[in-house]
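(Deposited chain)
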Amino acid sequence: MLKVYTIILVLFFLGCKDDINYEKPEGLLKKSEMIDVLYDMHLAVGTSNLPNIYLEKNRNYMALIYKKYGIDSTRFAESNLYYTSHIQEYEEIFEEVERRLKDLRDFHQNRMDSILEIQTGRPETRRIRDSIKKVRNLQDRN
């Protein structure tokens, strides 16, 4: 009986393969398109709990993303499945998405820092505002 279990166990491990490669689907999104779609999807998921201009929360914006890129959920799912089977490409895609999200966060963080500096009235920001006033006054006189 032990031999039977051993044979089954060996066949089980030999039958399990790690390298599943799906063939390219017919409407495969290009790598750059996949990056754009995933970037927008991350933004949509991240903002879905925030109120929009109509004060609506918990909206599903995925349909808008599909419409923006002229795709449907099936085409995205097939492309996503293909890229997940090619882990190296998928990792590159997500590194680019992550970089873009980080750049966006840094941009808005810098803007918020500037606004806070102006609101708190730190001396260095007062000096900048004073110099801007001087320039505007000189322009108005001319």
The first helix runs from residue 2 to 15.
